[in-house]
Amino acid sequence: MTLLGTRIPASLSLMLWFIVWELVGRAKLSTIFPPFSQVVVAGITVLPSEKFLRAVEISLRSFAIGMALALLIGIPTGVLMARVESVGRVFGTWVNIFVSAPISALVPILMGVIGIGEGTVVVTVFLFAVFVIILDVQVGTKKADRSLVEMARSFGAQRYQIYTKVLILSALPEILAGVRLGAIRGVKGVVIGQLLISIIGIGELFELYSKHFLMEEFWALVILVFAFAFLMSEAIAFLERRVEYYASAR
Amino acid sequence: MLADTIVEVAGLGKTYEAGVEALKDVTLGFARGKLSTLLGPSGCGKTTLLKIIGGLIPPTAGEVRVEGKKVDGPGPERAFVFQDFALLPWANVLRNVAFGLELRGVPQDQREEVARKQIAEVGLAGFETSYPHQLSGGMRQRVGLARALAVDAHIILMDEPFSSVDEQTRRKFQEDLLDLLRHQQKTVLFVTHSIEEAAYLSDQIVLLTPRPGTLSRIIHPDIERGRKSSDEIRRDKNYLDTVDEIWQILKQYVA
Predict the structure, then answer these.
(1) So where are chain A's domains?
(2) What is the pLDDT of residue A250?
(3) How many domains does one find in chain B?
(4) In a domain, B46, yes or no
């Protein structure tokens, strides 16, 4: 971004918004928006509290398990769908339906089936993340260089070697894009799952803060969740750019 | 068949699923230690023939025998050099050249030693840690050749290896190839659509007719290559006669 010929760092625009926020808060236009400085103070006091740390721990654990399942199941499914025509046809329609479906609507049903607890959140994260991962992996594997596969075969590659040494690596840019989108959706899954259950983790805190009108704490938590999702997505995007560099010759 | 025939092709035919007949009743032999080119107009099935010999696609009629054994897939005695190089973009030159050995489970230090040697043989010493996209087309194909040499196959199958390489690089590459292969005693099967390239390189030229590809003629150019320089060969009467003879045959297929 440039203004009057000088380059302005991206973080400055963020600062600008925080200043606007501060002014709006000070003007007491709405009780929903406390001044930004008070949100920061609330954040600093809440962060080390045991309740908060436990909420983070539970949330991170649900997220990690859900994402791990989504990757473990999503990547092989995507590869299979690309390589085996019948598998692609059987699952293709379902994946396409679910990737655009509002999964949140299923959470109440999951609560009924799995129970009100961490399990439901894990499954929610999984469902939020897995379909976009499957879809991207499938596209990546389909796009993978056929001549590389032929080359590997000509040098006597075993079937598993074609997957591990050629297909997966060739599809890595798309796989990582799928992982990034899946992870972003996974964060939504944690928050939405916990909000609907509203007795565990970050969701419980959100519920608690908004019910008792603790707006400073509420916003501090929002900023934290946003920052987490953003930083994770950036970290994966950084990996993606490294991979793109090597895949640039495709 | 000759006693030292290393590749025998008998009654070979290939009809693709869509009903396209690419090859029909091709029978011929390739001599050990010689360079043979498969030449013909576009769509004459020369690449199909090479890939069947390589075991990459199955024939629908007839069979191929390599060193007396029927081909039913790729084998360690055959190595392929691809038209589009088919290098792993995420791997450096060293790993690309060692890839055939990596697939066979050769330990890393051993396969890298072999790879380094072959990289030097094809004139790429110093580029071991470069990535394919940092190399020119000619250099990439040298990597492809080094990879084929690294697995120590008796037969090198080359599918239009110079078609994505500019003309100057191509000439130099052809000369280097002749030197290298004579030195290493390899049998080479080479697909090309260039008459000059075929006449310049080959001990045997196999001419195919357009679709479906059948055997048109086999020419054994009588060019004394021994100590002649490349420019002398290109002015040699037999070389020029061979080029003309091929052109007289091929021209009837060109619409």
Answers:
(1) 52-247
(2) 45
(3) 1
(4) yes
| B100-119 residues touching A, CB cutoff 8 A | 100, 102-104
Domain encompassing residue B205: 1-73+189-231+240-255
Q: What pTM did the predictor assign?
A: 0.77
Within a domain: B132: no
Residue B5 is assigned to a structural domain of this protein: yes
CATH number for the domain spanning B209: value is: 3.40.50.300
DSSP classification of residue B213: B
Question: What CATH class has A52-247?
Answer: mainly alpha
Name which of A85, A149, A153, A155 to mutate to probe chain B: the one with the most chain B Cβ atoms within 10 A of its Cβ: A155
Partners of residue B47 in chain A, C-beta under 8 Å:
none
Q: Is residue B17, in this structure, part of any structural domain at all?
A: yes
Q: What is the mean pLDDT of residues B161-180?
A: 79
Cα distances (angstroms) measured from residue B42 to each of B192, B235, B250: 10, 28, 11
Sequence-distant (≥ 6) Cβ neighbours of residue B173 within 8 angstroms? B138, B141, B142, B162, B165
Residue in chain A closest to B92 (alpha carbons) equals A246
C-beta atoms of B103 and A148 within 8 A:
no
By CA distance, what is B149's nearest residue in A? Answer: A155
**Of the candidates B74, B88, B147, which has its C-beta nearest A156's C-beta?**
B74
Q: Render pLDDT for B57-88 as a digit per residue (tens, 0 to 9).
A: 888 888 888 888 888 888 888 999 998 888 98
Residue A131 near residue A172 (C-beta atoms within 8 A): no
Q: Which of A154, A170, A176, A250 to mutate to test the interface with B (most CBs of B within 10 A)?
A: A154
B104 CB contacts (<8 Å, ≥6 apart)? A156, B76, B151
